[in-house]
Amino acid sequence: MAGMRAFGSRLRAKLNRRWLAGGLAAAVLAGGVAWALSPADPGYRTIDERVTVRTGPAGDQTATLDTRLYLPDGASASHKVPALLLGHGFGGTKESVSADAKDLAGLGYAVLTWTAQGLGASTGQIHLNSPDWEVKDAQGLLDHLAARPEIMLDGPGDPRAGAMGGSYGGNLSLMLAAQDRRLDAIVPMITWNDLGQSLFQQSLADKPGDGVLKQAWAGIFFGSGMGGGRGGGLNLDALGATGGDGDGSGDGQGGEGVTGGSGTGDANGTPGDRGGAALDPQCGRWAADVCETYLRVAATGRLDDPARQLLAQRSPATVLGRIKAPTLLIQGETDSLFPLAEADANARGIAANGTPVRVAWFTGGHDGGDGPQSDQDRLKYLIATWFDHYLKGNGDAPANSFTYSRITGLDAVDRGQMATGYQVTDYPGLGGGQTLQVPVSGRPRSIANPPNGTPAALSSLPGAGSLASLISGAAATDLPGQHARFESAPLEQTVSVVGAPQVSIKAASPTGEAVLFVKLYDVDPGGRATLSGGLVAPVRLTGLPADLAQAQPVRVSLPGIVHEIEAGHRLRVTIATADQSYLGPANPVEYTVAVGDGNSGAVTLPTVTATPIATADTLWLYVLLGLLALIALGLAVVIVVARRRHRRVDHSVSAEHADTPLWVRGLRKTYGDFVAVDEISFTVERGQVVGLLGPNGAGKTTSLRVLMGLTQATAGEVLIFGHRLAPGAPVLSRIGALVEGPGFLPHLTGEQNLTAYWRATGRPWEEAQFERALEIAGLGDAVKRKVKNYSHGMKQRLAVAQAMLGLPELLVLDEPTDGLDPPQIAEMRRVLQRYAENGRAVLVSSHLLAEVEQTCTHAVVVHKGRVVASGRVDEIVGDSPTTLLDVTDIDLASKTLDRLDGVAGYAVDGERTLVVDLGDLSRTEAVSALVRAGVGIDRVTPRRRLEDAFLALVGDSTAGSGDR
């Protein structure tokens, strides 16, 4: 696997620079760095031997495998240890994974590495992990382990064993687990599900028909087998397939072990029993059936039925239902050979049996190499905990959660990139937990397929590691006349894509067929386009019309990616005719292509809600935070001592008011000679929505600040559920508040602000009622945007959601409808009423008297720092001379009222309602006059208004320079 060099020398060298950070991390990462801090010399011994195994369809043939066993110090017949089979990548040898094996042995495992049949110093031919050959070889190695006295057994001939490996070795662990139930856990890395689909990729959403041959990767595979890993062929380990330190050569020497096996290889690693015979110049060490298949399909570019069947026999897709060993699937995000879809298919197939499965994505892969050290540390921790539980029985069962990572900055220690890991409780698959539709548009275009696919776009360099990132950032690799572009408007919010985007396209071809390559670019405001991981979606379309108007749209599933698209960037969908990594049609032809319905379409972007995972690269941040915490603690001690010198806090609880959300008596607050609050007393009971009213300067906000513990009262008593109020009192956790407007970190998203707020409370996450709070806020997808891009109304809604986190029993809101439009105000009214109906209580301060009248059950009217009225809203409103009349004839009624003496005035409210100020006229007299005139009266209702009562209580109170 690409990330497994983390087990090796670079980790040990790094420890000398990170010992202090590592010590701090032990507490933060719950033991995750304990492995990283293991001694540089882990303590093991090795045994090299040639092990002969029975192989072949009938099991009547033999192969001699070049093996090395790493035994941890202390392993013996009296101290048995579990074992691991560690397979290498294609073209490698047992040397390729030596660094990994050493570190795993240091963890207390007996690690058996070997060179696969047909490679290096092992005999036989390459059958590409055939169940009849390489998988049987591995079963023979399990037998070999079971016979060793140092290995722990689950039963006769059944070793306590796991298997892991990258690419070729990862596939072997899956195939072996399906064929041999003795495996207790496996960790397949950057490997395939269906080799036919991997090499002949078809990116249509429902995958009908044959795909497009990855000629570059197929050539690398075949070329690696020509020399058999003996120095004459490419070694995929060296290309990042396993990340080992192999050089593609056999080890060239025999070895002896406890079973007495021996070997006589020459300096080039050529097996002695092959007698130095020349390799087949056309097939090398490939088995005849595999070689013939490659030569045939590479010439035609089509996956025929015999080839499909042969590759299916080497693919986990056909045997996933038989895998019972708990499986940790690790896949690279920068991998044009085996993209994330391969691990996704494996995960779904294995989990369908009820087998424990965990999926982890990392930033490397066949094209991306190891990934940053922070990414490697995360993966090694996952691997260690997986095997420790399932092979040693240590710790709780690892969660079946999903983890992934993305590049988030620079590592100040290593001067390289830093990757941040994220965790999601449930694996969402490539479709993500949520989706976002981004419209793209552009006119249909005619594009040309060049003869023999030359020249062609360059999207990626297979196995190029860090060079792939240079290609992915170069949009100029799409050649003029050979591609069409369709773009979106600038995004209004930052989107973190996690999964496989999708887009519909249409195509027409005079031949009825087309091979197309669909790409998704991230285009910044300066026009620089980035192709995430250099990944493209090849599609082979058949049955096409010659006229685009007759074409039907097809859904293309783009490669799975992890990529953050910032606000202000645009999406670009490119449809190209040729790519250097794939084999397309040889004859020149012209296609017509479009997105969606022909003029516009939409890209579906999958997203997830994830929690960041702390890594070793953040440890120095924890050092700084620790120092700040010490400073804060010192200040807190000084404050506490100072307060205790002035007063002792009464912690007694009033049983009489233990179920009363708020009880206020004689509240007074002064600032020197200025009296902000003179004397205020009121009560808020469960089920009530209480409005705190008063003109500017009446003392409303000062009262709320005292109630929230933000300032101390000069005199008076405040009880919250019977507890006497004091700043920082634990009972304040039962209150949610919005006082003096919202305050958020502008560079974070709304969701991140809410999460940070709740984390700071120290309360369990499951108590946050996060989804309910977001539903109340009504921000929708805007919660993913940075707060600096919010309007005032959006910030207000976010603040209300923050106050409601945890669904507190008492909600205190200061002007909650400030900045909201009328529909949002109406929705807020319903929210507060429903909130109180469930046994909770709400105290709301507002200057919108009509809203208080419609929202609140009770009101407290404050004037000049004192309560001038309190009680039910309808009791405070009282009676009024204004009357509502519902009549049958609005015009006739109006003319009649015009002739009546004493009517002070009236207004029309709707089609049938009059609002009449009767003045000195009684209601009976007015109604009688209307009836005599022939007007039908359906309803007579006295009009009551809080505004009238408010003005009567406080008069024309316009003085003051702001609320107190």
Task: Tell me what you see in this structure.
The protein is α+β, with helices and mostly antiparallel strands. It folds into four domains: 4-204 and 211-424, Rossmann fold; 434-611, Galactose-binding domain-like (Jelly Rolls); 649-876, Rossmann fold; 881-943, Alpha-Beta Plaits, CATH 3.30.70. Helices cover 27% and strands 26% of the residues. 50% of the residues are buried. Residues 1-40, 230-277, 468-476 and 957-962 have low confidence and may be disordered.
CATH top level assignment of the largest domain: Alpha Beta
For the record, the CATH architecture of the largest domain stands as 3-Layer(aba) Sandwich
Give the strand tally.
42
Helicity, in percent?
25-40%
Strand arrangement, major sheet:
1-2-4-3-7-8-11-12-13-14-28
CATH topology of the largest domain: Rossmann fold
Secondary-structure map:
Layout: H1 9-28, E1 44-55, E2 61-72, E3 83-87, H2 98-106, E4 110-114, H3 134-146, E5 153-155, E6 158-159, E7 161-166, H4 168-179, E8 183-189, H5 195-199, E9 200-201, E10 212-213, H6 215-226, H7 288-300, H8 305-313, E11 327-332, H9 340-351, E12 357-362, H10 373-392, E13 402-411, E14 416-424, E15 434-441, E16 445-449, H11 467-472, E17 483-487, E18 495-499, E19 502-508, E20 514-523, E21 529-531, E22 537-541, E23 554-557, E24 561-565, E25 570-576, E26 589-595, E27 600-607, E28 611-613, H12 619-646, E29 662-671, E30 674-684, E31 689-693, H13 700-707, E32 715-720, E33 723-724, E34 735-738, H14 750-761, H15 770-777, H16 792-804, E35 810-814, H17 822-837, E36 841-845, H18 849-855, E37 858-863, E38 866-872, H19 873-877, E39 882-887, H20 890-899, E40 905-908, E41 913-917, H21 923-932, E42 937-942, H22 946-954
Parallel strand pairs: 3-4, 3-7, 7-8, 8-11, 11-12, 12-13, 31-36, 31-37, 34-35, 35-36
Antiparallel strand pairs: 1-2, 2-4, 5-6, 9-10, 13-14, 14-28, 15-27, 16-26, 17-25, 18-24, 19-23, 19-26, 19-27, 20-21, 20-22, 20-25, 29-30, 29-32, 32-33, 37-38, 39-41, 39-42, 40-41
Helix pairs in contact: 1-12, 3-4, 15-16
